[in-house]
From TrEMBL:
Protein family according to the UniProt entry: Belongs to the RNR ribonuclease family. DIS3L2 subfamily.
Enzyme class (EC, first level): hydrolase
Cofactor field: Mg(2+); Mn(2+)
Location of the protein in the cell: Cytoplasm; Cytoplasm, P-body
Cited InterPro entries: Dis3_CSD2 (IPR041505), DIS3L2 (IPR028591), NA-bd_OB-fold (IPR012340), RNase_II/R (IPR001900), RNase_II/R_CS (IPR022966), RNR_Ribonuclease (IPR050180)
GO cellular component terms given for this protein: P-body
Gene3D superfamilies: 2.40.50.690, 2.40.50.700
Keywords associated with the record: Cytoplasm, Exonuclease, Hydrolase, Magnesium, Manganese, Metal-binding, Nuclease, RNA-binding
GO biological process: nuclear-transcribed mRNA catabolic process; polyuridylation-dependent mRNA catabolic process
Main location per the UniProt record: cytoplasm
Organism: Phoenix dactylifera
Superkingdom, natural source: Eukaryota
Name of the protein described by the UniProt record: DIS3-like exonuclease 2
Statement: the UniProt record of this protein carries the keyword Ribonucleoprotein: no
Length: 1109
């Protein structure tokens, strides 16, 4: 007779076999090749419990929360957010021998040791392993190992036997996940369902590494033709990060800081400052205005604390962890072609994405494990068409739109009454509606997480439900501002109070104007210039003083902090601040007196800064200019006396200044900005800018066309002065408050990926020096000149160059005390940088404004006590010579700041303006990083929705593409028209042969001409050729009349196109056999995929022509 363990193994085998079949069916539908699910528990691995068992004392720990893994761990520091590489994109699918069999681990791992060849330090009292094979067997059917307890995980991390990391899933293969461990140069692969142990995208997990013998080969080392692409297939660029959609062009270079690893969600600052439990898109929980979140009683005052009694023990334990990392690094250096693998021991902190699941419901009944696990039963009986009754206890499937999530189950009883009624009536249209859900539980006994639906968003084929899904998925607040927040706003119309004229510098007599996109209404920055002499220009950057209106510890501040950033999705704007403030009271509207924080530099004609003044001011903008208008002025398209300037179509001029004053100011600013830009790049700055996709909308808000918008000089003009302002403020606040300044850092690129990019360029005949950001930029400039006749290839290279780049992020200087070199911004090549110039749409800028105000207040108070300080500035900034300031001038008086009197004055100012202390500021920075990533992801996802809508309207759109990666199963192509990459799978296609020549990295595609293709096995094993290529018969092709006449006259070549395709007059179809190599040009046919019947996407097929099909 079989024992309990054997029964469990047999049952698990049956489950795995059914899951295997379902997996194959799903992969065929998604144009994927077959892969066996060897890693599934219960397959070749038998039962988890038969190997590990589960001691009863851990049973309760394994069932807490959504899956039972939550350990109480504080908020992560800002500089640990987002600095990680992304999963590999596998072109050849090689080298993962240990991947699918990594579900169960050798006993040496379970015992807490990586391997005998790479042992971790052993403690005098070995850790108790919850997965010890000697534990009593539990005969209940379980598919996952129990989570380790909080105490065991903490002890394992301290001893260096486990490591804390963020869990990231490969979007192309959810069985592959990756974890980045601080100090380990290569991401750790978590391969297989069992090894992943119920972790999902964004979870912070405890990971134990496998023995070195189980490590797999690095996929990038096997990919031919495109080593860079192989490691980063699913990268979200931070391009245009600073300017966003609202201010295309401002501070653009901070945008070149690389690639975010997406981890959307909310990082709550305290219990009073969170989104609600329904996924975080509607209501805001407000705190008592007297004690708002994000502001601690611990202000920016350095305090000495006594070392703990167990400091020696802690130092020893930290030493153990450090030695373990050293051994791992040494092993990686010994095996450079191998990637470490590991398994998840426990969930330390659950990802916010557990509460933000978007998907489609199935209308069919799903049977639990005991009744044929994973089977879907049709809700109709074929003979009599009677309905199969669905009870409240029955399960149906939830299929997430995000491929990083596994399929989930939902109880019918948990659904809204209207949905239940439709399901019980057999209404299959339920399957076409997007739903928002959260994960309730994922127990050891289930291979699928159990979810709960909380919103029905609408039809998946419509734009607005898709936008709603994006907002829900990224926890972006779409609700109206609360009554409490609106009560904090001043009455409209608002005028500058008289007392502000007494304490601020009046700069209204200077010609000042804003430059923004033509549609912008939240104007938070303005420029001015005065000619002091033939050699000196006095340039001013004036930023709306938003911190004057958004006071700490108020409901308005709380809500602004929660929103953190304005989100600009096409045709949708979700502001951080109420429109009454961001578009009226605080906005620098032309002709209105406004409060500002101003920075004024004296700059010579060579671009050298001679002096600087920073202070609170009152300004009045004379006009609102658009980038297009300024570009026309730069190009000389406008005459000062042109009549159209005084008409209603152009910008309106306010106040005492004439258009001649504005034109002269713009020309001066343009010349100065070019000097500043030259100096910046000589100092080592890096430029990785690409064209931006812009959609054209009809009167109904539907996209009808698109174009790539190249960057204008007018954008560079504004950008240079915004960058200079941010650098200046960063320098001031970090020197005055070295422990609690909010800065923005950009670490150096990933070394391995940068070397791969260098090798890629060398292979294709391009010289690349990656020794510094400046040398990299110089090399790219030379390549740009070399490829001036092939701009598409250069855009591809710029895309590749962005991939090794890490993400820029906010951080608190106190977190990196003693590591000032880590404060630097790689792309800008500056030691200090922050965000100061957009307080209407970024919460970090408000924090920086408060900190700067504290510095200015302390400076004034110190000057009053030290009247003998030289250069005390008392006159107006516009007319008198700017004098040195002890804290905000070009030369920082460190002696004054560190003196007893100066330190006391700075501390008092920090308390007055409620500058957050180090711990709180680190939490604010980390949260703002999370929200910025979520905002960028939402904006990119919104762009994808509108591209999908455009293609859906056009049916099919043919475009040129370049081959980025090739392999035996699929190719990756870059479509320059939309600046996107797509995969085309050609394996197992009926009537199509694919020959891959590995030595020459060549692919040959052809169709069978003489006889029909004979399938082996199941008739569903092969896909139709129409899934891979749009094949036209030459008889269907037509010559456009204009081109026909031109050809007859000998003026050109006519293009053969199909009359039924959109915008194809210049695209030729290609013929079989098709021979492709890396970077080959190939035409593709784009079409909309999904919507009502699945996740929306942009599909790409080869555009072919053949008589034989």
């Amino acid at each position: 007779m079989r024992g309990p363990a054997e029964h469990a193994a047999a049952a698990g085998t049956a489950v795995a076999e059914e899951a295997d079949r379902d997996k194959k069916r799903r992969r065929r539908q998604n144009r994927r090749s077959k892969q066996t699910l060897v890693g599934l528990p219960g397959g070749s691995c038998s039962s988890m419990d038969s190997v590990y068992g589960q001691p009863p004392e851990w049973l309760e720990n394994s069932r807490g929360g959504a899956g039972g893994g939550g350990l109480k761990v504080g908020l992560q520091k800002a500089f640990n957010v987002g600095f990680s590489s992304l999963p590999a994109m596998h072109i050849n699918d090689e080298g993962d021998a240990g991947g699918m069999t990594a579900g169960l681990l050798p006993c040496s791992v379970a015992g807490g040791e990586i391997s005998r060849s790479c042992p971790l330090p052993n403690s005098s009292s070995p850790l108790k392993d919850p997965m010890d094979a000697t534990a009593p067997w539990n005969t209940a059917k379980k598919y996952f190992a129990p989570y380790w307890s909080e105490q065991e995980v903490e002890e394992a991390i301290e001893k260096g036997k486990a490591f804390k990391a963020t869990f990231r899933v490969n979007a192309y293969n959810s069985l592959e996940a990756y974890c980045t461990i601080d100090g380990v140069p290569v991401d750790v692969l978590i391969n297989g369902v069992a090894a992943q142990n119920r972790a999902i995208e964004g979870d912070v997990v405890a990971v134990m590494l496998d023995p070195v013998t189980s490590w797999t080969r690095l996929k990038g080392s096997n990919v031919h033709g495109n080593p860079v692409l192989a490691d980063d297939s699913n990268i979200l660029s931070e391009a245009r990060e600073v300017v966003d959609n609202k201010c295309a062009g401002k501070e653009r270079l901070d945008a070149n800081c690389g690639c975010y690893t997406y981890s959307n969600g909310l990082l709550p600052l305290d219990k009073r400052c969170q989104f609600n439990d329904n996924g975080g898109i509607s209501e805001v929980v407000h705190s008592n205005p007297g004690n708002g979140p994000g502001i601690s009683n611990k202000k920016c005052i350095v305090q000495q604390s006594n070392p703990p009694e167990n400091s020696n023990m802690q130092a020893f334990e930290q030493g153990e962890a450090a030695r373990a990392l050293e051994r791992i690094r040494a092993m990686i250096n010994s095996y450079p072609s191998k990637r470490p693998t590991g398994r998840v021991l426990s969930i330390i902190r659950m990802s916010p994405r557990r509460g933000a699941v978007i998907g489609f419901l199935s209308s069919r009944k799903w049977l639990p494990e005991g009744e044929g696990y994973g089977n879907l039963v049709s809700s109709h009986v074929s003979k009599n068409k009677n309905l199969v009754s669905l009870s409240d206890e029955d399960y149906i499937q939830l299929i997430p739109t995000d491929p990083k999530f596994r399929k989930m189950v939902v109880t019918v009883g948990s659904l809204a009454d209207s949905v239940k009624k439709r399901l019980k009536n057999g209404d299959t249209t339920v399957e076409k509606e997007l739903v928002a859900a959260h994960i309730d539980e994922w127990s050891e006994e289930s291979l699928c997480p159990q979810a709960r639906v909380i919103h029905i968003l609408g039809r998946g084929g419509e734009i607005e439900p898709q936008i709603g899904a994006i907002l829900f998925e990224n926890a972006i607040c779409a609700a109206k501002f609360s009554t409490e927040s609106l009560a904090c706003l001043p009455d409209v119309p608002w005028k500058v109070p008289v007392k502000e004229f007494e304490s601020r510098h009046d700069l209204r007599n200077i010609c000042t104007f804003t430059i923004d996109p033509s549609s912008a209404i939240d104007l938070d920055d303005a420029l001015s210039v005065e000619i002091i002499s033939d050699e000196i220009f006095r340039v001013g950057v004036h930023i709306a003083d938003v911190s004057y209106f958004v006071l700490p510890d108020t409901a308005l501040d709380t809500e602004a902090q929660i929103r953190s950033t304005s989100v600009y999705i096409l045709q949708h704007k979700l502001p951080m601040l109420p429109p009454k403030l961001s578009e009226e009271v605080a906005s620098l509207i032309p002709g209105a007196d406004r409060l500002a924080l101003s920075i004024i530099w004296d700059i010579d004609r060579f671009g050298n800064i001679k002096n600087r003044w920073i202070g609170r001011s009152i300004i009045q903008s004379c006009c609102k200019l658009s980038y297009e208008f300024v570009q026309d002025i730069i190009d000389g398209s406008f005459d000062v006396d042109q009549p159209s300037l005084s008409g209603n179509s152009g910008p309106q001029l306010h106040g005492q200044f004439k258009w001649k004053d504005v034109f002269e100011s713009l020309k001066s600013l343009h010349e100065i900005s070019k000097k500043l830009r030259d100096i910046r790049f000589k100092d080592g700055a890096l430029w990785l800018e690409t064209a931006k996709l812009v959609f054209l909308f009809d009167e109904c808000g539907t996209p009808y066309d698109s174009l790539l918008n190249e960057r204008k000089e007018s954008c560079s003009l504004v950008e240079e002065f915004m960058l200079l302002a941010n650098r200046s403020v960063a320098e001031v606040i970090s020197r005055a408050f070295p422990d609690c300044a909010l800065l923005r850092r950009h670490p150096e690129p990933n070394f391995r990926k940068l070397k791969e990019f260098e090798a890629f360029c060398s292979k294709h005949g391009f010289e690349l020096d990656t020794s510094s950001s400046g040398q990299l930029d110089l090399s790219l400039s030379k390549i740009r000149e070399k490829l001036k006749d092939d701009p598409v290839l250069f855009h591809i290279l710029i895309s590749y160059a962005s991939r090794p780049m890490q993400s820029a992020a906010y951080f608190c200087t106190g977190d990196l005390k003693g590591r000032e070199n880590d404060w630097a911004h790689y792309a800008l090549s500056v030691p200090f940088y922050t965000h100061f110039t957009s307080p209407l749409r970024r919460y970090p800028d408000i924090i920086v404004h408060r900190t700067l105000s504290a510095v200015l207040d302390a400076e004034d108070n110190y000057s009053k006590k030290k009247q003998n300080l030289l250069g005390a500035y008392k006159g107006e900034a516009s007319g008198s010579e700017i004098a040195s300031r002890c804290f905000s001038g070009l030369y920082f008086d460190k002696v004054a700041a560190e003196s007893e009197e100066g330190s006391q004055i700075l501390s008092a100012a920090a308390l007055k303006f409620k500058v957050p202390g180090t711990e709180v500021l680190a939490e604010v920075a980390a949260y703002c990083n999370e929200r910025k990533v979520a905002s960028r992801h939402a904006e990119d996802a919104g762009e994808k929705v509108y591209l999908w809508a455009l293609l859906k309207k056009k049916k099919v759109l043919v475009s040129e593409a370049r081959v980025l990666g090739l392999g035996p199963r699929f190719m990756s192509v870059y479509i320059h028209k939309f600046a996107i990459e797509r995969r085309i799978y050609y394996d197992e296609v009926e009537g199509l042969t694919a020959e891959w020549f590995e030595t020459t990295c060549t692919l040959v595609l052809d169709i069978l001409r003489n006889k029909r293709f004979h399938r082996r096995g199941s008739p569903r094993s092969f896909r139709a050729i129409e899934d891979v290529a749009l094949v036209l018969n030459p008889l269907e092709l037509v010559v456009p009349e204009k081109e026909k006449k031109a050809t007859e006259a000998g003026c050109g070549t006519a293009s053969l196109t199909s009359s039924g395709l959109a915008e194809n007059s210049e695209i030729y179809p290609i013929v079989f056999p098709l021979v492709l190599r890396h970077l080959s040009a190939v035409p593709v046919a784009l079409h909309a995929v999904g919507g009502d019947d699945g996740p929306l996407d942009v599909g790409a097929r080869l555009y072919m022509c053949s008589y034989f099909w």
